[in-house]
Specification:
GO molecular function, one term: kinase activity
Distance between the termini: 28 Å
Structural class: alpha+beta
Number of domains: 3
Largest sheet: 5 strands, antiparallel
Keywords: Kinase, Membrane, Phosphotransferase system, Sugar transport, Transferase, Transmembrane, Transmembrane helix, Transport
Oligomer: single chain
Pfam family, one: PTS_EIIB
Protein name: Sucrose PTS system IIBC component
InterPro entries: Glu_permease_IIB (IPR036878), PTrfase_EIIB_Cys (IPR018113), PTS_EIIC_1 (IPR013013), PTS_IIB_1 (IPR001996), PTS_Sugar-Specific_Components (IPR050558)
């Protein structure tokens, strides 16, 4: 989607859509899949679909309940981008490409999660690169092929392994630095100042949270040496690398400091005092106030999640509950909170308890849509949408097209995915599978870690058979459970009726 370009012909056609649906104030949400754009309108009496007659990009226009459906045969990403532009909706400011809410306010948690999504959105290429590099680093340095890791097979392989290890750490640093840039970009601030704030708060002269948590500079409440402020023991030299929520907070503080500084319309004063004070004041607020509080927040969050996901008793309560909730967390956007936790775990411990669960989620979602496709195998329009979406989920771990394009419309595939993911998560929890940051899909086997130093941080020891075997068993169990749960639920009367209604409403061509 990010590669789609503004097309003057598409834009002119999309302006007709705005007029045909009664203007932007008559739109509640816009939903899209691989073949259709669906616009849910507030008042159908304001529609004038005759204005779309003869359109060359919308091959057919349908009105189903309160949804105006625009069938697009090709270039749907480009058409969708131009539609957003014609509606004066900024693509950079929407949290979800597949369902855009226009005139409906969300609750506090929805606003927060949408905000996280918008901040992370420009950083997705970096996140993808981080996942791939972490996977390659694990292939060289973390996977024991029987006679040791690849990096232990020779000097050249060792050097390559070290290069990937350095690259991985550098990308973790880059991600922390780029967060202020993304926030300044979103808030229409000076992006150069955003970058500079990211650099000064992550400067290598500051001490990493890992070093502080290790006890090298004292306990969590008893800092000493270079980490403390004078003789008081108050910590000040704390790096923001890996502290995602604290650096987000500091970025917003900096944005509002810049807005305050811009009120001074005295040229010399503004350039020589006000603008430099943005970075200077942000730095001192960051290291003296937010840094120590952020360290406690990061420490508490990491320790709390690790305890909940690895404790001998708690993990059999927390993990299955999370498994049941995961598909719905994706739909509501709350999954972004877990994505932040996953990144903080990885940067702190070198591994994560979230990745095995994300993998079972993605396999379950893909399988549920595969089952829906088989159930409705005679509907070609559904297959055009479903096959690319579940294939993408299996290979890349991206489930939004599957959930928003198909699953959420039928409901029962999402329920089945919850059940299937939970079964797989119980197995990986029992077996003690830990991953590095990587691809939560069928490629997850390249991200499984067996490093004792990482497993010890989680107090986990994989049971007999090894993590690769148990991950395979978990994926198979997730697939089988989800597939038959989807088939079974589809035969229940309420879902059978819903299935027929959705096919007629969303995947018919009449």
């Amino acid at each position: 989607m990010k590669h789609a370009k503004i097309n003057s012909h598409f834009y002119d056609e999309c302006k007709k859509v705005r007029e045909a649906v009664g203007g932007i104030k008559n739109i509640e949400l816009i939903n899209r899949c691989s073949t259709r754009i669906r616009i849910k309108v507030i008042d159908i009496t304001k529609l004038n679909l005759n204005k779309l007659e003869g359109s060359k990009i919308f091959v057919k226009t349908l009105l189903k309940d309160d949804f105006v459906q625009l069938i697009v045969n090709e270039n749907i990403d480009e058409v969708f981008l131009n539609l957003l532009k014609s509606l004066k909706i900024s693509y950079e400011e929407i949290p979800n490409d597949f369902e855009v809410r226009v005139n409906k306010e969300g609750n506090f948690f929805k606003v927060v999660t949408d905000g996280i999504s918008v901040i992370v959105k420009p950083l997705i290429p970096l996140l993808i690169t981080m996942a791939i590099v972490a996977t390659l680093s694990n292939v060289f340095n973390g996977i024991d092929f029987g006679s040791g890791t690849l990096s232990e097979t020779g000097q050249f392989a060792k050097a390559v392994g070290e290069m990937f290890d350095i690259l991985q750490k550098a990308l973790n640093l880059a991600f922390s630095i780029m967060i202020p840039w993304s926030i300044f970009k979103l808030m229409k601030g000076s992006q150069a100042i955003g970058i500079s704030i990211g650099i000064v708060l992550c400067f290598h002269g500051l001490i990493s949270t890992n070093d502080i948590m290790s006890g090298e500079y004292g306990g969590i409440f008893k800092w000493f040496g270079d980490a403390s402020f004078l003789e008081s023991g108050y910590p000040w030299k704390i790096s923001y690398v890996g502290q995602i929520l604290p650096i987000v907070a500091m970025s917003f503080i900096a944005v509002y400091i810049e807005r305050f500084a811009n009120k001074f319309d005295i040229p010399v004063f503004k350039e020589m005092v006000a603008i430099p004070m943005i970075t200077i004041s942000t730095f001192f607020i960051g290291i003296l106030l937010v840094g120590p509080l952020g360290l406690l927040l990061t420490y508490g969050m990491n320790e709390g999640v690790v305890w909940a996901t690895t404790d001998n008793v708690a993990k059999y309560i927390f993990n299955p509950i999370l498994g049941l909730a995961l598909p719905w967390l994706v739909i509501t956007g709350l999954i972004q909170v877990l994505v932040v936790i996953n990144l903080q775990q990885f940067t702190t411990f070198g591994g994560t308890t979230m990745m095995p669960m994300f993998t079972q989620l993605n396999i379950a979602v893909a399988t549920s849509i595969l089952a829906v496709t088989i159930i409705n195998r005679h509907n070609k329009e559904l297959k055009r949408t479903a096959i690319p979406s579940y294939s993408l989920a299996y290979v890349s771990g991206s489930t939004e097209p599957a959930l928003f394009g198909v699953g959420l419309k039928f409901v029962y595939p999402v329920i089945a995915a919850s059940i299937g993911a939970t079964v797989g998560i119980i197995i990986t929890t029992f077996a003690g599978v830990i991953c590095t940051n990587g691809n939560a899909s069928l490629l997850v086997f390249l991200s499984i870690t067996t490093k004792p130093e990482i497993l010890d941080k989680f107090n986990i020891h994989t049971i007999a058979g090894g993590p690769y075997l148990w991950m395979a068993i978990a994926i198979v169990a997730t697939f089988i459970t989800t597939f038959f749960a989807t088939i079974g639920l589809s035969k229940i009367k309420v879902f059978k009726e819903m299935n027929a209604k959705v096919l007629e409403r969303d995947f018919s061509v009449n």
